[in-house]
């Protein structure tokens, strides 16, 4: 399977083409950025596709991060993925940023939980807790830090996401400290691609996954209400 993966949810503009049969990436690019995704994304995708020596019609599917994350960044990536999928007649799947953050730490043989967390500002985070086998221990939600700390009942955990450092600094002393802390500002595009290859398109729609209402809505989003 050939998968084009796109991520503009947080502080990165990234794209890659994964060849699952070869278990290799044809091409991969990731640019750190807080703003400017709209201008950078399509040229970056074009470079990745040219480096992969593929046409869009050769792809089997397109994967895109759907949030939580920057409202503007999510719209840029999702709009691009939908447009490319429509033009190439290829399915588009949505991958949450929390799942993409947690994916490299999920190990079916490990019992260590994984807490993926994104800074939602004002003392809140978007968070989800996973068991070592990938099942959900704490459903994705926007929550105050104290609610995240309650996940300590599952045992010492890996913390990952741009809020991981903040959580680690304020981790209550009555609980065992985190096993590891990875405060990366965006998920690895490679894992967006692998998750995109594995999900059922019917169960992973390319729709924004905000977890809270955006400050402004597009006409299309208003029409869906």
Structural write-up:
- The structure is a single chain.
- The protein has helices at residues 37-52, 71-88, 97-102, 145-149, 164-169, 189-198, 219-223; strands spanning 2-7, 12-19, 24-32, 61-67, 92-96, 114-121, 124-130, 136-144, 158-160, 180-182.
- It is α/β, with parallel strands linked by helices and 225 residues long.
- It folds into two domains: 2-98 and 186-223, 2-Layer Sandwich (Nucleotidyltransferase, domain 5), CATH 3.30.420; 102-182, 2-Layer Sandwich (Nucleotidyltransferase, domain 5).
- The strands form two sheets. The chain has a five-stranded mixed β-sheet with strand order 3-2-1-4-5, with helices on both faces.
- A hairpin with a 4-residue loop joins strand 2 (12-19) and strand 3 (24-32).
Can you list the strand order of the major beta sheet?
3-2-1-4-5
Q: Helical residue percent?
A: 25-40%
Can you tell me the CATH class of the largest domain?
Alpha Beta
Low-confidence parts: 215-225
Helix vs. strand class? alpha/beta
How much β-strand is present in the residues? 25-35%
